[in-house]
């Protein structure tokens, strides 16, 4: 029997606009209540006395992996496998994106979120489609994220919905287009590196991503909050993606990852990109690498801006565990699935993990 669709809701007002009129008052729908959560992975209340440690995983030098003639290439591949199997995420350096290019993207993000709300609203999303400016939808009665975002499809090129691509700031489209091209190459390199680290043919994951694989950019704005422990910038969740590539704020931390039922802060590493495993790569790897549960905490006084690039296969493409990895582990642990995103969106709205529904 098909699962009934969840009724989704959008906040009436962007958080940016909300805090101008109610800077010391948090509307009830933004306050997180742990008892609302049905999945133990999400029963993770924030506590003012909690002082999570920083994750202590090593950074991965992608250029060293790509240069097979390097004497350290194999060691770096082993390090990549180790960190993805234990953390489900990693900091990547020497990834092919110049520091100046990352700064340009941060700059246009800051400029966009600094516009008048009326200008931002020209690119507003709707409740039934996630592209555009606004907030995330949630299931009826669930708390909203303390976050405004601009969500844009960047690939395939012919599926770009340009009505959401702002002309203000004037360099926005050009800057995002240039960054997107670099991201496309980085996604290919990372998926091939991960495949090699698991001792499977290097195109194994990239071929499931496919030529019509979808890439989205998500510009995140996290306003400060007078009571930051009562809200989430992003509630605990795993990603629908194969991998997500995050450009962090240069100064303000906030991202945390869950490992062994303990939260760890993600440090800001200069010129690094933070890459995390999503549900669909966990499925393809037959559970060898894990999709990391993560959340975003809010700063009491400072805004935080980040830009994520998400990668998902085309909705009509079936994905599933690699045959070689099934043989190595002796059993297939996940179902083959088509259009995992549709399943994911129904579960994430209710603060549940969709990947549980495809485990065998």
Helix content: 25-40%
Helix-strand pattern: EHEEHHEHHEEEHHEEEEEEHEEEHEH
Give the CA-CA distance, first to last residue.
18 Å
Assembly annotation: single chain
Main pleated sheet: 8 strands, mixed
Gyration radius, to the nearest Å?
A: 20 Å
Number of DSSP-assigned strands: 17
Please state the structural category. alpha+beta
List the uncertain runs: none
Kindly report the average pLDDT value.
91
Principal-axis shape equals: globular
Strand order of the largest sheet: 3-4-13-10-15-8-7-5
What's the tally of helices? 10
SS strand fraction: 15-25%
GO molecular function: metal ion binding; oxidoreductase activity
Protein name: Fe2OG dioxygenase domain-containing protein
Family: Belongs to the iron/ascorbate-dependent oxidoreductase family.
Organism: Saponaria officinalis (Common soapwort)
What does this entry look like structurally?
This protein has helices spanning 15-21, 62-66, 73-86, 99-113, 117-120, 172-197, 204-209, 279-284, 323-329, 340-348, and strands spanning 8-9, 53-54, 60-61, 89-93, 132-134, 138-139, 148-155, 214-222, 234-237, 243-247, 255-259, 262-265, 273-277, 294-296, 304-312, 318-319, 337-338. Helix content is 28%, strand content 20%. Strands 3-4-13-10-15-8-7-5 form an 8-stranded mixed sheet. Strands 2-12-11-14-9 form a 5-stranded mixed sheet, with no helix packed on it. It is globular. 43% of the residues are buried. The protein has 10 helices and 17 strands. The model has no long low-confidence stretch (mean pLDDT 91). With 360 residues, the protein is of the alpha+beta class.
